[in-house]
Amino acid sequence: KNEREFLIIKPNSIRRGFIGEIIKRLENRGIKIIAMKMINISEKQVEKLYKIHKEKEFYKSLKEFMLSGPVVVMVVEAPRAIEMVRHIIGNTDPLKASPGSIRGDYGLTVQKNIVHASDSIENANSEISIFFEENEILKYELDG
Ligand code: CMP
User: Fold this and answer.
1) 68 CB under 6 A from ligand 1?
2) Does residue 117 lie within any of the structural domains?
3) Is residue 101 part of a domain?
4) Largest CB tally within 10 Å, which of 7, 51, 120, 135?
């Protein structure tokens, strides 16, 4: 059973030239990209995305960071996509992320941890709806 997962390639990853590397790692594991765009996130979108962190001491800095430049937002689809993507990305803290994971190979700090990915089906659906209309999400089959 396919799941949808939502990801953001964070602003400093764009500035470091990692868009292709991140997409390649997802594609290598058979993950299908079904929506993708490069945007400047709005303040409203960041506030919705990180509402559970509103009271945290790192919130203001996280918000500024996410607004510091363009990001790539994407929706992917795969069996057990949430677990698969989070495995490929690695632990939130790059120091705890395994080598071979995206954060384990490129992450600098907990904030500059390269990518965001939703942590549950429910959160993926609500985060997708912050950034995409349903008609922007595409249907097609990957070649075997
Ligand atoms: P992300 O997967 O985008 O989800 C929430 C983000 O908050 C997380 O990755 C980190 O970038 C950031 N974050 C979580 N904990 C901390 C922290 N202790 N200090 C700074 N940023 C944090």
Assistant:
1) no
2) yes
3) yes
4) 7
What is the distance in A from the centroid of ligand 1 to the CA of 92? 7
CB 4 within 8 A of CB 120: no
> Complex ipTM above 0.90?
yes
Total domain count for the chain? Answer: 1
Model pLDDT for residues 3-37, shown as the tens digit of each residue: 999 999 999 999 999 999 999 999 999 999 999 99
Asked, for residue 144, whether it belongs to a domain, the answer is no
- Tell me what the pLDDT averaged over the chain comes to: 97
- What range defines the domain where residue 37 resides? 2-130
For the chain, the straight-line distance linking the first and the last C-alpha, in angstroms and rounded, comes to 17
Question: Does the C-beta of 123 come closer than 6 Å to ligand 1?
Answer: no
Q: Is the separation of the CB atoms in 73 and 131 below 8 Å?
A: yes
**Ligand 1 center to 89 CA (angstroms):** 14
Q: What is the SS3 assignment for 16?
A: coil
CA neighbours closer than 13 Å in the CB half-sphere of residue 133? 2
